[in-house]
Amino acid sequence: MTKRRATGRKPKPFWERGYFQHGYWLGKERLGAVRLGPKGEWDGIYRWEAGHRAGETTTLKDAKQAVEQAVLVGASQLPLFE
pTM for the whole thing? Predict the structure, then answer.
């Protein structure tokens, strides 16, 4: 019987809920965020940003999916103009 090699697991990004924003973290590096408007002035729109991309959605679920998608695309594509 052969020994199995211990494979190091890659850390997975996770969502951390905050007071006025949700952060998407990988270890100690923030990959993206979803923000709300100022208290008392919130217009019902979630603003997200990840890397050089940003946008707005009407639901938190859509905003989180947009951040995750932007992080995946940024990680999987080679930079074209660098």
Answer: 0.77
